[in-house]
Write a structure and sequence with these properties.
Shape of chain A: elongated
Helix content of chain A: 40-55%
Largest sheet of chain A: 7 strands, parallel
Radius of gyration of chain A: 29 Å
Structural class of chain A: alpha/beta
Number of strands of chain A: 7
Largest interface: A-B, 61 and 61 residues
Order of helices and strands of chain A: EHEHHEHEEHEHEHHHH
Oligomer: homodimer
Number of helices of chain A: 10
Chain lengths: 237, 237
């Protein structure tokens, strides 16, 4: 399904380029512009960085209806509350809805309003849903391209294309390996006189608690034991 | 708890202003800059829009360690995979962790790297966790301020659903204390001959990675340094 990002009357070409880059970083490619003040423009290209293809393939329309006429679903982004309450969804919930739409569906349009005034009431009235981006109650004025970035990010996350957790490069140490390391540490600490009479024995417990939080891997246990062995060897010589 | 956004050597002042605006829309206010190429600059003010106060109160540092020395927890943002995998968290999961930290904790720093090169390996090695922002496998190159916006947004969302973790019995060590401990460890390892010629230097990086996962408290750092000191004293006698 095509997800179409529609910028309604953007004033600053830099925002068009930045929106294109924001889209491409989240695997969106369809950019439509309704009456942009300046486009094409070198500022748009500069801010697009590696997303020049998205800028180059952007389609310009003379009216909003031209831009969304073939769309089966239209969402309007908004930070302000409106007179007439609409179906309002948080962007994360909206993204979940979109991810579950059939692949073969007609295009979905997401509208972003003017830098200063957002979307007009008659534009919002054409939307199936109003999408709200959570933001500060003190200063909630998101830059246009930032709003595109956040919506694109939530859509990307919802599509489940995310692979985040990097595999660890070593196996976890077994409990037996860790216990043996503790014994070694204890011996070494005695040899260097760390446990002088009167010194609080709780220090060793604290060291154990500290290591227990790490989920040590095999190599780390070997390195630690290598350090202890080196200390012991130097003491003998 | 102060959440400190640290931009490391940003090249474009426009990105500084845009990052400030991104922060303010998500109720963040503490902006720190390490060696910005141009700052202050009219471009930063222009892109900040209603967040001029965040730009005006930004603190400039000559080194990363100056910027994070008093921080108890340091997170580094990264899109690339590194040679030695670190603890990596998805930004949404990281935001949940942050929301549950005790209110009275020392500052938390979130590092954002250079526009072209991100964070250097030695900078990433100072982090407790690497935060990854999900993005396209084809073109994942987020603009710097966009990355700040996404992290700030997730932090804002997570603050909505908070359960604060029980306080630890000791204060977290600051970054400066941990760095000094690393220096001490390095000296001690040299003295005991751990770094024989031909031995892989990666062992030290692995030790750093290991300690970075613990979120060391002050007492633990003192105990570790006590151990190192004892080793050094025994070598002399």
């Amino acid at each position: 399904m095509e997800i179409r990002i529609v910028l309604v009357e953007p004033s600053h070409p830099g925002n068009i380029g930045a929106a294109a880059r924001a889209m491409k970083t989240m695997d969106l490619a369809s950019l439509h512009l309704v009456n942009p003040l300046r486009f094409p423009d070198p500022q748009a290209d500069w801010r697009a960085a590696g997303a020049l293809d998205v800028v180059a393939s952007a389609q310009v329309h003379a009216s909003l209806n031209d831009a969304i006429g073939d769309c089966a679903f239209v969402a309007g982004t908004s930070v302000r509350d409106r007179h007439i309450p609409w179906t309002v969804k948080d962007v994360a919930d909206f993204a979940q809805d979109v991810a579950s739409m059939p692949e073969a569906a007609k295009p979905l349009a997401i509208l972003f309003g003017r830098e200063n005034n957002g979307l007009a009431n008659d534009e919002l009235a054409q939307c199936n849903v109003h999408v709200r981006i959570p933001s500060s109650s003190i200063y909630g004025s998101l830059n246009l391209a930032m709003a595109v970035q956040l919506v694109a990010y939530e859509l990307f996350k919802a599509r489940g294309q995310v692979q985040v957790r990097s595999a660890w490069d070593r196996a976890h140490a077994t409990n037996a390996e860790v216990v043996a390391m503790y014994d070694h540490l204890d011996r070494m600490l005695h040899k260097i006189g760390f446990f002088d009479p009167g010194a609080p024995r709780t220090a060793f417990t604290r060291l154990q608690r500290m290591f227990s939080r790490i989920e040590l891997d095999e190599t780390e246990v070997q390195i630690l034991r290598g350090v202890f062995t080196h200390v012991e060897q130097r003491l003998k010589s």
